[in-house]
Amino acid sequence: MSEVTPPEDGKKKGVSRRGLMIGGAAGVAGLGAVYLMGRGGGGGDDAAAGCVTTDLSDTESVLNMSNWPEYIDEDDGDYVSTLTAFEEESGIDVTYTPDVNDNVEFFAKVRNQLGACQPTGRDMFVLTDWMAARMIDAGWIQQLDKANVPNLDKNLISSLQGVGWDPNRDYSAPWQSGFTGIAYNKSLVGEVTNMNDLLTRTDLRGKVTMLTEMRDTMGLMLLADGADPSNFSDDEWGNALDKISKARADGQIRAFTGNEYINDLANGNIAACVAWSGDVAAAEDENLVFLPPEEGMMIWSDNMIVPVQGTHKANAEKLIDYYYRPDVAAKLAAYVWYVCPVEGAQAEMEKIDPSLVDNPLIFPTVEYLAQTHGFMALDEAKASQYEKDFANVSG
Known about the structure:
It contains 16 helices and ten strands. It has helices at 24-36, 45-49, 82-90, 103-115, 129-137, 150-155, 195-200, 214-224, 234-249, 261-267, 277-283, 313-323, 326-336, 345-352, 366-369, 380-394, and strands at residues 62-66, 93-97, 124-128, 173-185, 208-211, 253-257, 272-276, 288-291, 297-305, 372-373. Strands 1, 2, 3, 4, 5, 6, 7, 8, 9 and 10 form a ten-stranded mixed beta sheet that branches.
């Protein structure tokens, strides 16, 4: 087992991208629209094919991009950010908007335009695997021109290749990845090594939180119950859900939360929790430990995708290709502290910050990645059912 604590110099700054997720019953209500507007409900490849707009990149050197907050480096004094360097190098003026606070919440902003074949005002979104997959399946995402993104195919790390929902990365390019595991405050309790500890240890009663993101919390619970989160049955789902329900009824679980858990963990209001890797790094607290549960941990990615009504596709592809240069990727990784998707960036990190070269939260080893699992792709009906099930327990 490998645990990670933040370095004393606290290199990771700001609120983590993953820490701003919103879940619970409100998220479930929003999801209903996602399912209704997939295939057979206004989407689909045939309908979307006629929605693709003319690419104006040859005459307009602009790009509108939506991403998560605190998910990119920023200009600071003499420091020139990767985005500013891209603008200077390419001549493309990027309007970068950090308005993706939650996958479902963001989808609500753009679903009407997507369904009506109208521009969203954005040329690129950065969305998590499952939402990116749904948009691709609905036919709302443009296929990338491989000739324009050679660095993507050349430098994408092997662990992010061959995903079932986009096996050749024809439509998506990972921005960053991260892990969901366990965090605990070592000044309050001894080592917490597995999900059963969270659910049953008496010294943790009332001092445990779990995440409102269904795929993160339930993925870990399925693993703890001996099931495969990438391929599980309704019975296995029900068994894992019952264990969480019982733990909450018994007072073991204090709450289901978004990123506020990290402050409670640092302040001693809770002692252990389900956590995102970047949150622990961002806390800059040597007492906080992130580790993979003994059963394994979940892995996820956020992906750059181009909507069918994006009017500057070639400009978006230039940005993708730029961020898949190892030197650029290393510079970004040194700021955001998530898993870098670019092969060769680890060697480049030697020039930027040698202390980060062997950090498994940024450059996980094969052994570290062997502990990770993805969540099973769900059809509309099943996703709706599972989200509602989880909301009944967590809400």
